Amino acid sequence: MSIACKKLNFGDTISIISPSSPSSKETIDYSLDKLKSLKFNYKIYDNLYENLGYLAGSDENRANDFNSALKDDNTKAIMCIRGGYGTLRIMDLIHWSFFKKNPKIFMGFSDITPILNYIFKKFNVITFHSPMLTSDLDNIYSKNSLINSITIPKNNHYIENPKNINLKSFTTNKNIATGNIVGGNLSLICSTISTKYEIPFKNNILFIEEINESPYKIDRMLMHLYLSGKISECSGLILGQFTNCSDDNNVEVQNVLLEKLNLFKKPCIYNLCAGHGEPRLTIPIGAKAKINISNSTIEILEKTVI
Known about the structure:
By secondary structure, this protein is of the alpha/beta class. It folds into two domains: 13-151, 3-Layer(aba) Sandwich (Rossmann fold), CATH 3.40.50; 157-300, LD-carboxypeptidase A C-terminal domain-like (Glucose Oxidase, domain 1). The chain contains ten helices and 14 strands. An eight-stranded mixed β-sheet has the order 6-14-13-8-9-10-11-7. Strand 4 (105-108), helix 5 and strand 5 (127-129) form a beta-alpha-beta unit. The protein is globular, with a radius of gyration of 18 Å.
């Protein structure tokens, strides 16, 4: 079994960090007020408002804030403000031993994908592929999925789309796949292959989402996973949202995905509302799960917080 962190209670304090790209002070302050309205307190560190082009400050400063949050005994969780780019630049600067001494809920997605998966890989601790500080939490499904995931311990439970958006399944000769959920943003998954931060594919269920990549780039990255043997290692697949993944060639990204599923021959649930679209469901990275092709379900088989 994976290790679940302690749940959040309303009134608990969340560390806010910016390991990737910057946001404006106005956007950050507005979003902090929104977090407060959800009945959580927050703590920020020295460099949250920094802006260095496409980075939220220097690598050293972003890593320092991250390390401060990891060792902060007064906060119960860590939430990133946004993705963009920059996480890979600071992975070697993070004092991971601080997390081992003081594990806590970690939340983010997109460029945060390497961190989510490395925490699970290194410590066997569940993290959350979830909305971030500047995400739109006015969407009721996104908000409820996040809040319920981090505040309510649940035994076996299902990850479900809103009732008007059906989960779909790709049929193979195998109807059931089990494994820990790993993955996140496709570009970041591919970027970590053959590094020490490569996600743990073997016998796990690979979750993939993407934004602003043309269909041929999606094709190329999926072929990279296939030719490198990573797809064959997985027990199954979950496909989330592929947002704004179009070009001028009249190629639908959905057709690219279905073509690749025919090649992969792996059990797959797709059309999950998780990624860069709305609503944006929270996915527990590292949690033991079962996907059932016969009834298009995703079942979490263990508590993700305690």
